[in-house]
Amino acid sequence: MGVGFACGLAAQEPVSQPNIIFILADDLGYGDVGYNPRGEPDIVTPNLDRIAANGAALTAGYAMNMVCGPSRAALATGRYQQRFGYHDNVGPRVRESGMPRGLPLEMDTIADYFSDAGYSTGLIGKYHDGDDADYWPYNRGFQTFYGFNDGAVDYWVGNKNDQVESWYAIHREDGKRVPNFDEYLTDAFGQESLRFIEANKDEPFFLMLSYNAPHDPMMATEEDLAKFAHIENEDRRIAVAMIYNMDKNIGLLLDKLEAEELMEETLIIFTSDNGGAGAPKYSGNAPLFGHKGTTTEGGIRVPTIVQWSGTIPAGQVLDEPVNGIDLTATMLHAGTEPKAEWQLEGVDLMPYLTGEQKQLEDRYLFWDNISHYAVRDRDWKYLDTRVRLVQGERKATPFSGLFRISDDISEQNDLSKEHPEELARLKAAFEAWRADNEAPRFGWGTHIGPFEGYRPKHEEIYQKMLEREANRKK
Predict the structure, then answer these.
(1) Alpha-carbon dihedral of residues 326, 332, 338, 343, nearest 10 degrees?
(2) Integer angstrom CA distances of residue 271 from 59, 156, 301, 326, 386
(3) Which residues, in sequence order, are bridge partners of residue 124?
(4) Which H helix or E strand runs over 199?
(5) What is the pLDDT of residue 445?
(6) What are phi and psi of 71, to 5 degrees?
(7) CATH code of the domain containing 54
């Protein structure tokens, strides 16, 4: 595993309680960042490239799940979300009748920990948890909130914010809806992040800036679309414009930190909640195989960059496998004194990022939502999943295999027959890990338990999903 230092100063003594900004994209493909030399050729992200150049690009960064909700639950707790039965997005089926759906209320979150440590905490953008007010971020440790609690919303929801269902509407920390506004939603989140910095610049703050871009519905501003008029595929053109807009707003945030002379006091982490939705539409995952919703690299391997000027040397390209709960552990170790009862399962990456530690200890990373699972160590990966996009057509096709992933990032060479001993070792590690997990509490799969409904829109989606499954079995 290589550690590249293109440039940068030697690490200095870290700030005792740095500001921490965690930026989370939604469905951003591995190839949808300009700093990735093997990524998509049409993408323009100068400000994400700026973070990578001023810090470290983690080439083997992984989301905690192949869909949004469970991945975010892990980030919020610093634990594998399967430990508390959060295997799938909140959905119409439950393990037992009447079982609550969402991150268990008895569990604390990263925002609770930072609040207790004296930080001002804020969440701007998408949250994705239970419907009841108890589950919304303003009741989970975030003192400031500006956003919504659902998987996706209209990017022009602002001009009808007083009319839509509550989970699609933009709210503040008092639980009230934001008055109608005209801004494109990504721009609104960007401007709100600047206001948060201005209000909290004189004390340590933790900001989770959770963009819903480039998750569908596919909507971009006319100005941004015009910049990419040369892209013939309309869906791809919209996706690229959406990503470009998110990047512009991240640039405004970086400019604000520089203007306030806060860069050396601020740890910045950027990643995505799962892989891209797949070509030819939406986000792109080059050079990976697969897409969101699967445990192929395209479903779980995501752009991951970290900057802390004066502490993390600039220009690094680091290829040790890391995941979302490592990011959570790193943030908490930087700003607090983690306690044993938090049960953090991630690794503090700071010694690795500063160069003090050249390689992480040997370990396994795991993914599991019952019907899709995977396990990898430094060199090997075993997965079992279904790939729905086959040569441009939507089909549910089983896909499994053993890959020397450190050399075969595109998962092209199944080595399960050549190396049965590695396959057996990875499977045994996975089964031992799975034995300590709780069965799914809720979700969309028929294996979970009784159907109790959820929301009108989601029930319609669920019925279409059942129809597709029935047709697939014919």
Answers:
(1) -40
(2) 11, 24, 10, 12, 24
(3) 146, 209
(4) helix 185-200
(5) 86
(6) -60, -45
(7) 3.40.720.10
**Tokens 């709780």, located at residue:** 438
DSSP 389: E
Query: Does residue 301 lie in a domain region?
Result: yes
Predicted confidence at residue 93, as pLDDT, reads 92
- What does the pLDDT look like over 187-224, one tens digit per residue? 999 999 999 999 999 999 999 999 999 999 999 999 99
Q: What is the pLDDT of residue 292?
A: 92
Give the model's pLDDT for residue 395.
Answer: 63
CA nearest to 287, candidates 91, 98, 30: 30
Structure confidence at residue 371 (pLDDT): 84
- The pLDDT of residue 13 is 59
Give the C-alpha separation, 337 to 328, whole Å. 13
The number of beta carbons lying within 10 Å of the beta carbon of residue 152 is: 16
Cα angle for residues 289, 295, 297 (degrees, 5° grid) = 35
φ, ψ (nearest 5 deg) of residue 269: -125, 135
What pTM was computed for the model? 0.94
In angstroms, the CA 18 to CA 53 distance is 20
Distance CA 339, CA 421 (A): 38
Confidence at residue 393, expressed as pLDDT on a 0 to 100 scale: 54
Asked whether the beta carbons of 245 and 186 are under 8 A apart, the reply is yes
Quick: pLDDT tens for 341-350: 999 999 999 9
- Is residue 431 one of the residues assigned to a domain? no
Q: Alpha-carbon distance 131 to 384, whole Å?
A: 32
**Residue 388 domain-assigned (yes or no):** no
If we measure between CA atoms, which residue out of 361, 236, 369 comes closest to residue 300?
369
Number of domains in the chain: 1
Residues 455-469, buried b or exposed e (16+ Cβ, 10 A)? beebeeebeeeeeee
Please, what is the Cα angle at 57 between 207 and 83, to 5 degrees?
Answer: 60
Instruction: Tell me how crowded residue 351 is: count the other CB atoms within 10 A of its CB.
Output: 15
Q: Is 428 exposed, middle or buried (0-12, 13-18, 19+ CB in 10 A)?
A: exposed
**What DSSP designation does 321 have?**
-
Q: CA 276, 153, 125, 339: dihedral to nearest 10 degrees?
A: -70
CB 456 within 8 A of CB 380: no
Low-confidence ranges of the chain (pLDDT < 70): 1-15, 279-281, 388-396, 469, 472-474
Tell me the per-residue pLDDT of 41-85, one tens digit each, with 9 for 90 and over.
999 999 999 999 999 999 999 999 999 999 999 999 999 999 999
Is residue 153 included in any domain, yes or no? yes
Tell me the residue range of the domain where 81 lies: 3-354
Cα radius of gyration rounded to whole Å, the chain:
21
